[in-house]
Amino acid sequence: MVEEAMKRYRVVYERDESGWWVASVRGVRGCHTQGRTVDEARRRIREALELFVDDARRASIVDDVKLPSAATRAIRAYATLRKKADEEDRRAARAARHAVRVLRRGRLRMSARDAARLLGRTLEDECTRRGAAAGPVAPAGPSAHRGRVGEALIPLLRPSSERFRHGPRRLG
What we know:
single chain; alpha+beta; Double Stranded RNA Binding Domain; 2 domains
């Protein structure tokens, strides 16, 4: 059985003088709708397209939102800076992993919590940043080492020899 290529439709969204967003499907004469928001117009345009073509449910819709040039420049500037920030985040994460390895191995053999604190982070902060469940935050003071460490950081903070010798373990 040969699969049919999914049809793609380009939809142009433009703001009209009354503030509504008008959506028009290029290449399908008379297929247009409107909405108070771009999302509303996007939902409605698929319904309108179903009146014109059979494959509207399976079709791919490519959005082309027409904006003033100042807004387009602002979006491009943001995208450029966001890309640079993401690259810097990746570099910082690599540097942090290297620093943790240095602190946890060799003569230092620091605890995971001490290594994280030296890097200006808490284990709970790192788990939250990485989207892992950190569990309850440990109280400050002598018992602080008893707080739960997020599962996502255990492989990073445990020395590799310990990772393989003991396998995965649950802290708690």
